[in-house]
Amino acid sequence: MSRPDIPTAKFYSAFVDQLRSSIESLHEYVGGAVKSEILRNREYFLRLFDKAVKAGYQYGLLSSGLLELRCPDNARVLCEYLKEKIEEGLDKAGRPKPEKVYELLSSVSRRGVKDLCDEVGKTRGIDTTSIPLCRESKKVEDLISFDNLTKMMTYVLANKILAYKILELHYGGLIPQLKPVRLGEDVAVDGKKIRIFSTSDVIEVLNSVFRLASSNIEKALEVKDFKPIFETGLYDEIILSGAESINRVNAIIDLADSWKEVLKNLPGIVGYVCENLLPSRERHQLGQFYTPPYIARLIVRWAVRSKSDRVLDGGCGSGTFLIEAYKRLLWLKFNKDYDKPEYPSCTKGYNENQEVLDQLYGVDINTFASHLAGIHLMLMEPRCPISELHIYTNDYFALSRRMLGSSELAGSSTQS
Fold it and tell me: Does residue 137 fall inside a structural domain?
């Protein structure tokens, strides 16, 4: 695909619109499947609960930002009461074990809404017969939503595919080409054949390809910095529903494949994608409160004053401060203004892009955030291969100098 003769902003917008549409189409086959499995499959629930805690959600899958109770405005009293009952159940158990949480949520979800309405009427002394929802034959399960979680899972999968396609341009000899998959076919990954019988086999193939690519590149470059991009813990547990979901995944693969050559020559594209793919309302729902670039730029210009400064962002989110620090260091080190645009140069044995990245460190306890930051930095200049990326998923206050890989970092970094 050749780049159309249109302004860059419109070109970016066209790509983002196509990608967002493809992601939303795929999510239609993810949301219900993941929710059903959470409420009915104990092992799946326990696995996600543990990963949610590790991802920074104190109360696992019951944490704000993952679990949401949804009632119409005229039935809000039902969700308020339901929330209280869940909280009471947790309080009685102190800090409950995940097994107890599963039993609580599973039992609550199986109740009928009419029964819930009767209970609310008796305990609150209100007439619930006037509430339309109370006359419907629904389960409490219908009021429970994990849409925030499943949207993050879907966005992460799409981001992985996009990042992988850019990596194919640089490391095609080290990693297999990511191709659409079809039901009934055999897919070979690292000498192992996987027969595609179901949607779970599709996810297995994708994860196997991602793991192999990450491993091969890291071995070849002798680094271990691609993990935040392809291994995201909680968000790797995506489930697809129905054969059509495979077509939706393939549509994202085809889209990324058809645009990758163009995107290679558009540095900063993922920055635009990260800032525009998620509407602001959804970004807040997903817990991503990002700093406007102009504010980050002002702070970075004050904080980063030398070309030798190293920058550590202890709550990096999707990377807004790190991106502005990248641009600032590019100017200080090489007298290049990224926004003009003047991009870093790279030839064999010389890589301005990597020199800047070597001075940037990002930490976030939320895996979704660190994943976005990693991809954002990785593709600031997609024409230049990278060998190191210092993005860590961890509690900033639990980190040590050793974990950050530099005994001098804490004493010489600029925290943003």
Answer: no
Domain boundary pick from 94, 128, 162 = 128
For 121-248, strand residue ranges (E) read 144-145, 186-189, 192-195
Residues 300 and 206 in one domain: no
pLDDT at 9: 62
Q: Is the pLDDT of residue 96 over 70?
A: no
Is 52 or 15 the better-scoring residue by pLDDT? Answer: 52
Q: What is the pLDDT of residues 35-85, one digit of tens each?
A: 999 999 999 999 999 998 887 787 888 887 789 999 999 999 999 998 888
Q: Which long-range contacts (CB under 8 A, 24 or more apart) does 99-106 make?
A: 99/42, 99/46, 101/49, 101/60, 101/61, 101/62, 102/42, 102/45, 102/46, 102/49, 105/39, 105/45, 105/61, 105/62, 105/144, 106/39, 106/40, 106/42, 106/45
CA pair distance 58, 138, nearest whole angstrom: 30
Quick check: is 332 in a domain? yes
Q: Can you give the three-state secondary structure of 49-74, one letter per residue?
A: HHHHHHCCCCCHHHCECCEEECCCHH
CA–CA separation, 209 and 207 (whole Å)? 5
CA distances from 151 to 29, 33, 113, 283, 363 (A): 11, 12, 26, 11, 22
Higher-confidence position of 83 and 414:
83
pLDDT digit string, tens, across residues 262-280: 766 665 555 555 555 555 5
* C-alpha–C-alpha distance, residues 292 and 46, integer Å: 37
Amino acid at 287: G
Tokens for 129?
Answer: 């017969």
pLDDT at 391 over 90: no
**Cα separations (Å) of 233 from 152, 229, 313, 368?**
12, 11, 21, 9
- My answer on whether 177 and 311 are in the same domain is no
Predicted local confidence at residue 161, as pLDDT = 92
The total of other beta-carbon atoms located within 10 Å of residue 234's CB is 27
Sign of CA dihedral 305, 336, 311, 288: positive
User: What whole-number distance in Å separates Cα of residue 129 and Cα of residue 139?
Assistant: 17
Domain of 370, CATH number, reads: 3.40.50.150
Q: In this structure, are 272 and 262 located in the same domain?
A: no
Do residue 218 and residue 301 come from a single domain?
A: no
CA 82/CA 90 separation, integer angstroms = 13
- Structural domain containing residue 377: 268-416
